[in-house]
Amino acid sequence: MRASGGASPRPAPPKRSPSPTTTSTATKLLVRASSSLAMPPPRLAHLRRLLSLHSPPPHPLAPSPVRPLPLLLPRAMAGAAHAGVATGSAEYEEVLRCLSSLIKQKVRADTGNRGNQWELMSKYLQILELEEPIARLKVVHVAGTKGKGSTCTFAESILRSCGFRTGLFTSPHLIDVRERFRLDGLDISEEKFIMYFWWCWNKLKAKTGDDIPMPAYFRFLALLAFKIFSDEQVDVAVLEVGLGGKYDATNVVKAPIVCGISSLGYDHMEILGNTLGEIAREKAGILKKGIPAYTVPQPSEAMSVLKQRASELGVSIRVVPPLDPRQLEDQPLGLHGEHQYVNAGLAVALANTWLERQGHLDRIHVKDHGTLPDQFIKGLSIACLHGRAQIVPDPQVKSEYKDTSCPLVFYLDGAHSPESMEICAKWFTHVTEKDITQPGSLEKPHSSNNCKKILLFNCMSVRDPQRLLPRLLDTCSQKGLHFDQALFVPNQSQYTKLGSHASPPSGRDQIDLSWQLSLQTVWENLLHGEKGLNGPSSSETSLVFESLPSAIKWLRETSQENQSTSCQVLVTGSLHLVGDVLRLIKT
């Protein structure tokens, strides 16, 4: 197999372990499987990756003209839920450059990340004079391992459909940082984002120094969200916890209207703990005395911790069952997948309690026959969150045959925990088996029986691929689905950070693919058992690409050249990867 443009696959050199200086990436765009690859410790792989990034230069206190960097890709459209297309103005690029300077280039598993200088948050609030504005916000606060972003999206959409002005803060973003800040269901405009950014940036720069450093990246974004929502006078602010709960930047809210904890599982274990009990204890940090709290069915170890913490605070944490689809009067959920009924059930409880505690139950009409109020049904059906069970046919690959649909379709889901991998696999097998088109797709996916299933995968090096990939592969196998190929790539955003003009390292010898080669090793071992990368067909079952654009290029050329076979590509393992793919295929 050979891709055009010099993209020729070949085996890695034998008897050589992957390292920053010896990986076979200097001359080839992609690498076939090789049996000599051993998995490096994830922490070391992450350190090597961080060392390849350049520290940003000092940043000014106010916007100034910025010299354009080499152009890699134009800024992509933000999508159906976005306020519009980002212009990529020099001032906006300067804002993104300043934001990037707040990203701390240290291993996330560092123990200093747990509650790292939490007391600084109160000082930042004082500098920005946000204590009183935050106290006035009517907050819905949601933590969890899986589904917290979907729960927040559903809750915001319900309350917006009830006629309230809403603010929604979620993470991470997929294409543009403004996705994290929604006002009335739309990403904040570039003009407003720039205005609020400089207001916060300049005040903090003027008052921080050796004793009080500038806030880290996520803390700054949370502070910015509080400023935006308070100045925009939203009726309700729906806040998704970034990581954990107790020490999360959003947890400066002392008296939310209602709290929710979505499904718990194993993720961010290097920070939150190695057991479900430890993880649940961190998530329960958002619970407050006297504030109603809800959760979904949890593993017993996690549930006992949540109930214990609620009891200590003198509150009752109520367990909400999954939403019964019959309550929707035949309307589909805006977010797809069976698991979303769990998140929708929690969102309904949160929205209903917010309305009740704010004295607004008169806004909704409760029906006698057990279905949800019309505003709830509308909110749940129009909810939109990209990168979760999303189907996007590639607009650049056209079929040569009349009345046939796109030969290259991407199925995107940002699953990155063992539990979410299983959910993702069930969704992918279901929609590809029945050729279901989700609302919002560009066109009907290819319906031919001659379909090639391809996995496009990457995950952060702090995660264990031997927990993720087996869950994905086993679930698909149980449903009768088998991948023809697996492609392993680094995230594009590893290099681009926040700016639209940043590019990967210019020299291929600077790109460390040891982690992707390790992922390939795990995959081949799963496919071929102890034979691993020496299996009879290992040279055809997996490839490693040095960049995501080269992988997309190869997929497009393969699809265009073999239109009798459609390609259904599952993109998963990382929300950052999903965002990078969306950016590339929509430009």
Number of helices: 19
Provide the spatial order of strands within the biggest beta sheet. Answer: 5-4-3-6-2-7-8-9
Q: What integer value in Å does the Rg equal?
A: 24 Å
* Global mean pLDDT: 80
Count of extended strands: 15
The amount of helix comes to: 25-40%
Main β-sheet description = 8 strands, mixed
Structural class: alpha/beta
Our measurement of the CA-to-CA distance between the termini, rounded to an integer number of angstroms, reads 27 Å
Q: Could you tell me the strand content as a percent range? A: 5-15%
Low-confidence stretches: 1-31, 33-87, 106-114, 436-448
From the spread of the alpha carbons, the general shape counts as globular
SSE diagram, text form:
Blueprint: E1 30-32, H1 42-51, H2 90-100, H3 120-127, H4 131-136, E2 139-143, H5 148-161, E3 166-169, E4 181-183, E5 186-187, H6 190-207, H7 217-231, E6 236-240, E7 258-261, H8 269-272, H9 276-283, E8 293-295, H10 300-313, E9 317-319, H11 340-357, H12 374-382, E10 390-393, E11 408-412, H13 418-434, E12 451-457, H14 465-478, E13 485-488, H15 493-496, H16 514-528, H17 538-541, E14 542-545, H18 548-561, E15 566-572, H19 575-585
